Amino acid sequence: MTKPKRTHPLGLLLHIAHSIKDYWYLLILLISLYKQPVWFALGWVLVIIAILVWPIIRWATLSYRVTPQAVEINSGVFVRHHEHIPYARIQTVQRKQWFFLAPFKLEEVSIETASHDDNKPEARLAAVPTTLADQIDHYRQGTPATETATTETVRAAPNPDATETTASPEQPAVEIPAAAHYRINNRTLFKFAVTSTGFIPLLLILLALYNKIPRSWTDTLISDATHLALIILVAGALVVILIAWVGAFLWTYLRYYHFDVTLQGDQLKTAKGFFQRNTITAPLRRIQAIRIKQNVFRQWLHIQTVQVLLASKAASEDDDDDLVILPAVPQAQLYDVAPDFLGWLPDHTPDLGDLNVADRRKWYLVRNALLVALVPVAIATWFWPHLWWLFALVLVLAYFQGLFAARQTGGHLMTPTMLALQTGHVWTKETYYLPAEMIQSMRLEQSVWMKRKQLMHLIVNVRHGNKNQSIELRYLRAEQAQRIYDWYLHTV
pLDDT digits over 109-160, tens only? Predict the structure, then answer.
């Protein structure tokens, strides 16, 4: 019987880092108390306990054991916890290897099941041997425990008098041949990083920081260059946008550096990252839906992103909290590459014209987008009338966003058990492939006004982590929506 083991002492660094992430507000509180010596000293004690002492205690009281039947975790300081996680219940196994752990062949392993908490996995093992996750994956593949134990015993202990019959987690597991493999090339990764919309939140952060600059500095700068005010304003805006764009580019490029996806047996495995190598393994049977995304910039470059929706938060650091399996694949090659990993997908670009918003119906989406933007624009114009031109630009963008959404709306019953839906949301085209068995619910909505015009909204719900993913096609013809609803009723 394998004895419980402790994680490597280097795991303390990861425990401390997680504590800093959880209790960062204590550092801000400490800074605010620097003028009160007594409270400042007490604050230091609290910070040291939270980010140093407590992680050490948690590390010292945690142990783990991997058997052919399950992963067992012992933890807890004041109340001891024993978790028994059978392999059949595991949703995803996530591996993170920071650069300072690589020389020691260590990594952080997180295990999630369908019952995990929103904010953390069932088990997180910091700084364990890289062979541990391989052993867990090996058992998850369904290899009989007796076969594994015999193989490992012969390999590790040829002595016939040996009594150990359980595979050791430190020993390498038998590698299952890859059924499919894909690695992104640098040119495609560059396009993917260049077209990231991550610069938008970074731009908002930079604008917020600008408001923290002392007003005397900005007033002095403007007064010294009054004759160049417009040039400085435009140049400053371009510099801020450039900084945000470069930051988003580097963030995306380093996160998806050397992206690999492999299909081994019934397991999808993705690996990516420069400073931290992040590996996620998820079984195909746990996939709830497939999403193919393409923002407006990537439409110009003809590249698309393929994601899978999981009943797990393992991909919480990926795009939209979904597991990215193909971050950037040329549009012409998508249905040649992706079906090797996801058998649900067709081998050609589908025609989604069965469910569309054409004719006058597209103006309903344009109208809605304008109405959403009109109220805040009117309020902002009242308070800052000199920026009317900027607020007018918002209305123009809202108009084209509504038109974009209408043009991207589509859907089609691919097979008797497969539905494809397409939406246009925030300048991003999203195509979903939904097996009937994975659809949690379907709903039709029709107002009194829509009833007179024979229109309906179709809403399809699938599981997304511990939450719900709602896919809505608006202003369909009633007979179109009803046909899909009737199909769903006959499949449940």
Answer: 988 876 655 557 778 898 999 999 888 888 887 644 333 333 333 333 334 3
Signed CA dihedral, 480, 481, 486, 487: sign only: positive
Q: pTM above the 0.90 mark?
A: no
Give residue-wise pLDDT tens across range 243-266: 888 888 999 999 999 999 999 888
* φ, ψ (nearest 5 deg) of residue 476: -80, 160
